[in-house]
Amino acid sequence: MARVLITSALPYINGIKHLGNLVGSQLPADLYARYCRARGHEVMFICATDEHGTPAELAAAKAGQPVAQYCAEMHQVQADLARGFGLSFDHFGRSSSARNHALTQALAARLGAAGLIQEVAEKQVYSHADGRFLPDRYIEGTCPNCGYERARGDQCENCTKQLDPTDLINPRSAVSGSTDLEVRETRHLYLRQSLMREKLDQWIDSQRGWPLLTTSIARKWLHDGDGLQDRGITRDLDWGVPVQFDGAPWGGMEGKVFYVWFDAPIEYIAATAEWADANGLDDAAWRRWWRTDEGAQDVRYVQFMGKDNVPFHTLSFPATLMGSGEPWKLVDYIKSFNYLNYDGGQFSTSQGRGVFMDTALELLPADYWRWWLLSHAPENSDAEFTWENFQVSVNKDLADVLGNLVSRVTKFCRSKFGETVPEGGEHGPREAQLMADLTARLRAYEAQMEAMEIRKSAGELRALWVLGNEYLQEAAPWATYKSDPDRAAMQIRLALNLIRFYAVVSRPFIPDAARAVMAAMGCDDWSWPDDVAMALGTLPAGHGFTTPEVLFAKITDAQRGEWEACFAGPR
RNA sequence: GGGCCUGUAGCUCAAUUGGUUAGAGCAGAGCGCUCAUAACGCUUUGGUUGGGGGUUCGAGUCCCUCCGGGCCUACCA
C-alpha cells in the first residue's frame, strides 16, 4: 500500500473541452487513479478548472455575463461532463477559490522575500474602447512583412513572422475593432527563473524514466539560447488573484492580478485544501499530501498533461515551489501526451472542429469513448481520430471480444442450468492452463499500468479478454453438456467467474460496463485478483446471477455515416 | 532560420535501447464451431523498416545526406 497523489492538467474555463483535451490529461489520469485504487493504494486525485485570464473575461463578455457568474456556470458544466465520463476526481476545484487566492499570494510573498521576484517596467497596448490592456494576440493589424491584413500582434499567421504589437500597421483591437489604442507603460512582477536554472537542470537530470517528450521540452527551455528566461507573472486584469495584498513585499500593484500560468498549478495544492474543506477535515488532512515535513515524504506524485503544458510543470511550477524555501512536495513523474488530431486536421475549440465532450456523451456511453481514446492515446506521437477507426475498434474490442463473451456464457448457462452458478465437475489440465495464461497476462497488464504505458495496458487487457474466448472454444461446454453435464457445469462455473474477473480488471478503462457486469453477476467483490485461481472461485455453485442486456451495442454503418457527415464542418 | 520529435504490412501500432528469420490487432483469404451481439477459434497472404550513402562481425535501432509529417521557438546554441 502506497500513497499516490495524481493531478491532471487543469481544463481552461472558456468552453466545453474536446476529446483531444480529454485524452491528453484527465482521462489517462483517471485510468491511473482508478488502477491505483483497485490495487489498494491510498489515492488523492485532483483536478480543477483554470478560470483566470483574458480568454475567460472575453468569453464571459460574449455570453453577456459577469465573469464570476460565467465561470461558476462553466465550472458546473465541466464538472457534470467529467462525471459523465466517469472521471473519478477526489476533488474538482476552481482556481478562483479563496484557497487558491491565499496560497498563491503566500507563495508569491515567499518568493519575493527570497529575492526571486523582480519588478519590470514594460510597455503594453491599452485599448480605450475596451477599457483594458490587450494581450499581444488580441491586437490585429497589417503585417509589415507580407502585408497580410489580419496579422496578430504576436505572430502573422500568413507568413509566420514573429511580431511585436507595435510592428503592426493600422493596429486595432481584436475584441472591439477599435483603433483607439495607446502604448502605456506598466509595471509587472517577473519570476526570476533564470536564477534557478542550475537547480532545475540538476533536478531534471536526476529524474529517471520520464517520457522523452517531457525531458526534451524541459531541456529545450533550459538550454536554448540564453537559457531559461524570467517570465512575467502578473497582468493588468480585474479577474484573478490580486497582486497587492496585506503583507505583500511590493507596493503600487493595485489593479493587477497574477497571470494564469503562475496561479493555475498552485491550484493543485489549493484544490486539495478545497477537498479538505468540502469534507469537513482540518488542514493536516491536505497538508499530509503536500508538505514533506507533515507526512508527504512517502507520497508518490504523478502529473498528467498535454505537451503544451510541459514547460510550466517541469520548470515554472517547480521553480515556484523550490524558490519558496518551504518543503513542498515536488512531482515524481510527469506523464505527457502529444495531440489527438481529428480526421486529418486538428481539433479546434475556437473553430468548433471535432467532437466535444458534451456531444460525445449524447451519441454514445462514456465507456465507448474511454476505451477508444485510451487504447489510442497519443503517447509517442500525435494520433488521429477517424470515425471509421473508432467504429471498427469499438465494435471489435468491446462488442465482439468482451460483450459477446459475457453474452454467450450467461445465455448458455441460463438455457442449460438456469440463472445459477452450476454445481459439479472438477478442473482439469485445460483449466490449469487457462489460469496460467491469465496469470501471465495479468502480471503483464499490471506492469504496463504501473509504467503508465496506456496503449500497451489496453493491449494486455484485451489479450485477457481473448483468453476467455479461446478457452470457451476449446472447452466447448455446448458439446460436453451432451456427453458429460458435470464437466460442462464446471466449465461454465469457471466462465461465469471469469466474467466477474473481467469486471474487476477492466474497471479502470470501462467503469460503467464493469459495474453493470458485476451487478449482473450478483456480486460486489472488487478485490484485485492477486491469486487468479482463487479469484476464479469467488462465485460459488448455487450463486444466482442475471443475464445482462447487450453490454455494448455495435455502432452501425448508418450511425457512422451520419456522424461523419454531421461533424464534417464546424458545429 | 534554429532545435526537438517522427516516418515500420492496406490501416493503427510493437520491436527488451546494435544481436537469430522485423512482430501484434484490424482489414483480406481459407478452414472449423454453432453457446453467443452474423459473434468465437485455428491457419494464412501482406514489409528492400521514406530514398541514398556510411560505421560495424551484425543496423528498424548509430552517423551523414535528401524527401515527407508534427511540435516548440527566436536573430541564438
Structural account:
By secondary structure, this protein is an alpha/beta fold. The chain has a domain at 387-535: Orthogonal Bundle (Isoleucyl-tRNA Synthetase, Domain 1). It is 47% helix and 14% strand. It has 19 helices and 17 strands. It has helices spanning 19-38, 54-62, 67-84, 98-113, 197-205, 212-223, 260-278, 283-290, 310-323, 357-363, 366-375, 387-416, 429-450, 454-475, 477-483, 485-506, 511-520, 532-535, 557-566; strands spanning 3-8, 42-49, 91-94, 117-127, 132-134, 139-142, 151-152, 169-173, 181-191, 231-232, 234-235, 257-258, 299-306, 333-337, 340-342, 345-346, 383-385. A five-stranded parallel β-sheet has the order 3-2-1-13-14, sandwiched between helices. A four-stranded antiparallel β-sheet has the order 5-4-9-10. Strands 7-6-8 form a three-stranded antiparallel β-sheet, with no helix packed on it. Helix 15 (477-483) runs antiparallel to helix 16 and helix 16 (485-506) packs antiparallel against helix 17. It is elongated. The two termini are 47 Å apart. The relative contact order is 0.11. The model has no long low-confidence stretch (mean pLDDT 90).
